[in-house]
UniProtKB/TrEMBL annotation, chain A:
Residues 30-369 form the Leucine-binding protein domain. Transmembrane segments: none annotated. Keywords: Signal. CDD domains: PBP1_RPA0668_benzoate-like (cd20014). The lineage of its organism: Bacteria, Pseudomonadati, Pseudomonadota, Gammaproteobacteria, Oceanospirillales. Pfam families: Peripla_BP_6. This is ABC transporter permease. Residues 1-27 form the signal peptide. Belongs to the leucine-binding protein family.
TrEMBL record, chain B:
GO terms for molecular function: transmembrane transporter activity. It is a multi-pass membrane protein. This is Branched-chain amino acid ABC transporter permease. The lineage of its organism: Bacteria, Pseudomonadati, Pseudomonadota, Gammaproteobacteria, Oceanospirillales. The chain crosses the membrane at residues 62-85, 97-115, 142-162, 191-212, 224-249, 256-279. InterPro entries: ABC_transp_permease (IPR001851), BCAA_transport_permease (IPR052157).
From TrEMBL, chain C:
Signal peptide: none annotated. It is a multi-pass membrane protein. One of its GO terms (molecular function) is branched-chain amino acid transmembrane transporter activity. It comes from the Bacteria. Its main location: membrane. It is found in: Cell inner membrane. Keywords: Cell membrane, Membrane, Transmembrane, Transmembrane helix. One of its GO terms (cellular component) is plasma membrane. It comes from Nitrincola tapanii. Pfam families: BPD_transp_2. This is Branched-chain amino acid ABC transporter permease.
From TrEMBL, chain D:
Residues 6-247 form the ABC transporter domain. It holds the Pfam family ABC_tran. Keywords: ATP-binding, Nucleotide-binding, Transport. This is ABC transporter ATP-binding protein. InterPro entries: AAA+_ATPase (IPR003593), ABC_AA/LPS_Transport (IPR051120), ABC_transporter-like_ATP-bd (IPR003439), BCA_ABC_TP_C (IPR032823), P-loop_NTPase (IPR027417). GO terms for cellular component: plasma membrane. It comes from the Bacteria. GO terms for molecular function: ATP binding; ATP hydrolysis activity.
Amino acid sequence: MANKNNLRHLMFGLAGSALLLTPQAYANETIKIGVMLPFSGAYAALGSDGRNGLRLALKEHRERLHGSNIEFIEMDTEARPERAPEISSALLNRHKADFIVGPVHSGVANGMLRTLRNRDTIMIVPNAGSAEVTGALCAPNVFRTSFSSWQTSYPMGQVAADKGYKRVVTITWNYGMGRESVDAFEESFTAAGGEIIRKMLVPFPRTDFQSYISEIASLQPDAVFVFFAGSGAVQFALDYDALGLRERIPLIGSGFLTEGTLGAQGKAAEGLVTTLHYADELDNPNNVKFRELYKSEYNRDADLYAVQGYDAGLMIVEAIDQLQGKVKDRQAVIEVMRNMTVPSPRGDFTFSKAHNPIQNVYLREVKDGVNRVIDVAMPALEDPARGCNM
Amino acid sequence: MTTSLFFIQLINGLQYGLLLFLIASGLTLVFGVMGILNLAHGSMYMVGAYLAWYFFTHTDSFLLSAIISAVIALSIGILVERTLIRQLYHRNHLDQVLLTIGMIFVFNALQSLLWGNDPQGIKVPDLLSGSIPLTDTLSYPVYRIFVAVICILLAAALYYTINKTRLGMLIRAGESNREMVECLGINISRLYTIVFAIGVMLAAIAGVLSAPMVSIVPGMGEHVLIACFVVVVIGGMGSIKGAFVAALLVGIVDTFAAVLLPSIASMVVYILMALILLVKPKGLFSN
Amino acid sequence: MLFQKRSERLFIWIFFPLMLMMPLFLDGNIFYINKLSSILIFALFVMSLDYLVGRCGLITLGHAMFYGLGGYIFYIIAPQNEAVNFWVYTFYICVISAAIALIVGFLVLRTSGIYMIMITLAIAQMFFYYFSDSMEFGGIDGVFLYLKPETSFLGIKMFDLDNPTHFYYLCLFSLFNTLVFFKVIMASKFGRVVDATRENPERTTALGYNVFVFRLASYVIASALGAYAGYLFSMQYGFVNPSMLSWQTSGTALVMLILGGMGSIYGAILGTFAYEGLHYFFEHLTEHWMLFMGSAIILMVILLKKGIAGYIEKLLEKRS
Amino acid sequence: MSQVMIETEGLCKHWGGLKALDDISLTFADKELHSIVGPNGAGKSTLLNLLCGTYKPTSGRILHKNEPIDSIKPYAFARRGIGRSFQKTNIYPSATCLENCAIAAQRYMGGSFNFLKPRNKEPVLLHIAEEALHKVGLGHRKDTVAAAVSYGEQRQLEIAMVLATSPCVLLLDEPMAGMGHEESALIIELLKQLKKEYCIVLVEHDMDAVFELSDLITVMVNGQHLVTGTVDAVREDPRVKEAYLGQGDEVY
């Protein structure tokens, strides 16, 4: 149960926030990993899964660390952008973190980039999908193990057109991620001959969708494309179902609509079709092994956020291994990382010039409370990295 | 906007307004009688929803979990009033604001410790899971109608209690003149405990009723808190009748603003509130 | 003498020399210097709130509105690709925010007490949503300022704002000036009327003062300084976000103020440092820091009726 | 009779359906002490509140030196020199007695928007404030915090504050309420001195004091004007006796 886990974290926390994983006496070097994730507030679940994944990777591959001490410094961002510069400055300047893993929230990412771009550390983004991270604000020392908003929505435009939808309504929160996702969908959907008949923008973080859905019902589109995540995703699916539209107008979206939310959505999520770079059920050896390990370690099922955190951990492990623990030479670390193939549970991926994963995007459908993979919507998809001069 | 869509949106607005009233009524009652501004009121809404979810997953009965949750909320109310709120009767509003902000922190931390941070949901009770078709594409869930009816019944019950019963007489007297009630030999501290506990319970019941309709997530209380403030202030602080009118007003205005004025949708209710306070600085139904 | 109370003199003689020397102890550790700078900035903001709440008796839950406005006004009026003059823009920002405060104050000061708390909250929320829903101001993700102003004054370059230590001294300098500024105001003839309007507005009207005008003037002053704090904050990391205007920011400032002690000129500084210290301590202790923070706030309200400053004054009284 | 300072014409004040004050026409002359008496609820305090601008009249006019003043702002009354004391002690309890009077004196001395001038560095103003304290016999209390002085002294302070505004009209609302005999005697002496200089309107329950001090007495009942006259005329008027007896108020 979640509560036991949390109690244990509390105990851990009381014992001291810096946790030494390999306390061997002969350890030659301490490698500091700063973790900037939300541990309280609406995004707390995403933060703790990411952290768990990260720790799991370093624990699993302990023997590849060349005897380095790994020290975690965990900071709660509370998903508050205005705290981001301060916290990242703490990790960079006070703790002299070698790697900084974070954040979940794109607004926080913008604040972090402000202090970490081109500085003496490696930033690995394990979630925030804002285009700027590997677009206009890209930098040699910034990597992303997750996705770009474009990647998770662009393929859906093609899928929708292939399904024969002509008139589609889009709805999302009025914030960066939402608008970028809808734009990416529109890009491929209109290119394939579809028409967006209405673009609805909901003030963030409003979760009262009933009036919007009533409006959609009166427009009678062929399908509805949405980008919502977390509580918004749960609420939208619940309202969409409650008002009887799920049976009548197909609901499609970026995969976050049904990621980590299925328990709360229940039958309201059945039949929703989404595109994402991961699915719990992916049938590959890495994924099966990872999920087993995660379950036995944390007594809960792994999810996308755990995978992304885990991959950030794999990157760090790989870099330490190849450089034999000498990670102070950032240029060397960057060189290793940008040429790396990450053996991710989602399938192997490499990095684009802008340091975003080149990865498969899967087409998924919810059946019996699980995201089933129907197909690969677009294989080895690379983000266009607009605005990046790297 | 077609006529049918107009009426559908009107229903949406009314339903949202009724739920707002249920949450806000506890806030305005506590303020009216005790002069306490409880910022942690939204947290009680959250606690109600989490309790309902927790007991539903253990008992599988919505009614049973609703009753247990209400009883627990009542006990929390009594406990909080006896240990904390009691200290503040002779302090100013500022101290109350502060203490209840502290309570928000504590409730949020407890929620995260006890129930984790994953979004949760419970399914609508089978008996109420049907829906009524309104148009070709749109139908209205029975459960939401049920919630609206419960809200109206609770509003009527509150009205009856305040205007027709001995407790209500004391509440009304307490609003207008604290000393007088004390002179009448009535145990004012017990009255305050009861009123505060009822206020907490109303918020929790709103949380319980919302549980099958909303995503149960950390921080859900703070969103409704501000909406409740708007309702209570527009209605006139301490006025149940005012809260009722204001909640419906806010519900309808907010619903229509969302579709008609999308660019300023979230500002509209605050503009409404500012305008009303300019004309009637103490709200629509102030004493 | 400007600082009549012993506790005030004591505080000023300990705090400011200590802060002046702080960068020496910190030995150029950028994090601590930045952290201290941001605490000093927020202390300045809380001090402007203290003037309203503690000295004028006007309780507001919307003061963060001006904190955020300071940042956004700067973003809006400053050219994006050219370093502007710090002092000139300080003047602009104070004037523009004062003008906004004049209009807002005209509306909110018609009410009082709990209604004023609520209407200030409502107006601040309006601004919050305006910025968080607007596309041109970056919405909920906020905006960046890519260039820091230069600080030459009459041809002399005073601070290099890209240097954290310089920026730290600018913040300290601003805080000290603000403290002296408020102290001068409170000791002035204007301050006499402000005291009177707080303590007994009815009597003050009967004596022939237009209470509203004095409150409005105070509101404008406090708001302009609140905006100045926001301007400094936005400059520190080149970052403006709507959450600067949120009611949580106002609430935090109030918590700090009450923790430190209202109405005493240094309570705002004490409160900000104490709150940030507690927050920092609990956050490093456990991810459930909110539990301890919340309990600490509750205990403090119940036990420390006049905040830390009140406690110190009591101690000093006992000894003398 | 000397110059008329304040005049009311058909003054009415209604609270909803209740007529708190009904058609009152009175004149108050300079250098005279004019008392308003009557049983509880007669409208004495309402009248006073209208004269100093706290309430706005429902109908009727108020003239000050022959200029209508019923539509000016409440604070403007004091600026015209109409000062008042309150029935319930209404001072600045945490300030010193001197500061209380200084606040009052600063109003007409000006400079209230001077942000820089230290409040304690203006000898003229402080002198005026101190003089006002001396007038009411509180000179020795000037550095004491107002909350710390006795109740009677607080009443005296109220009057001193009014005096410090350099008024021409004093509206005094029960200055002797709740006082002991000796304290009352002090105030009576004080008022005897003051009425040589000011137009004073006095609302008071202590009839001995009223008879001793007044040049004119107006008796009000139920918001209506009953009679106005000299002390002797009022004392003998049968209507007055009836009104008081009818109310069951023990006056004599």
